[in-house]
Amino acid sequence: MKMIYKKYELHEDIPVRSVLNNKKLVKYFNRETSAGIVCLAELLKDTVINPETPIYYETGLIEYEDFGLDTIVETCIEDGKFSQQAFVEKGMSSISPLTQFKILLNMPLCFFSIENNLTGDNAVVYSSASGLLVHAYLADTEEEIILGAGKVNPDGSVESGFALLKPYEINKIRNNFESKEGIEIFRYLNSGGINA
Questions:
Q1: 5, containing H or E segment
Q2: pLDDT tens across 65-121, in order?
Q3: Is there a contact between 22 and 91 (Cβ–Cβ < 8 Å)?
Q4: 86 domain residue, yes or no
Q5: Phi and psi of 63, rounded to 5°?
Q6: What is the pLDDT of residue 68?
């Protein structure tokens, strides 16, 4: 198993441009995506992987970044209630179209796949370490898979972790993560929880 974990504080610059092949994509990234691109680049540095390598990613609640979602909600309130029609007609158009790429939960995984030319099986799991591990464990391969997780914390810091491992190696880590977020797997591995 090969593993990388990084944490960037709010004031720290995430050096995503230094590792990105298509630098024009940066405008679509939130901090979680940027940190993930950097981590995955470091994990795969000097490694040749099959384009069909499966990648499974867990994202947590974005607890810090404000993408103008309050503006959408305010725009969609009619007679004191949220209006689905107003959401469709006015809500999303009340913020920058680029924001949509920053708030969709599957976008980090899309950008990781695009950047690394990955076309294999993939899944995004929301706030569930056990769900992430089940996807990886049940991968229809005996070859290596990519397992990842990211989290934007309330203080604005962002964490990202990735591992390149074989599905059978999931058994080493799948206990003790029943009701936790995926990033906790990488905190555990980074602290020497097992010989990563």
A1: strand 2-8
A2: 666 667 778 888 889 998 888 888 887 777 777 776 777 778 899 999 999 999 999
A3: no
A4: no
A5: -95, -5
A6: 64
**Strand partners of residue 161:** 5, 149
Is 83 contained in some domain? Answer: no
For 173, the domain range is 2-65+98-190
Go through 93-131 and write b for each residue having 16 or more CB atoms within 10 A of its CB, e for each that does not: ebbeeebebbeebebbbbbbbebbebebbbbbbebbbbb
Domain CATH for 10: 3.40.47.10
> Considering the domain boundaries, does residue 126 fall inside one?
yes
Does residue 124 sit within a domain?
yes
pLDDT tens column, 140-179: 898 999 999 999 988 889 999 999 999 888 887 877 777 7
Domains: count for the chain: 1
Eight-state DSSP code of residue 191: T
CB 32 within 8 A of CB 62: yes
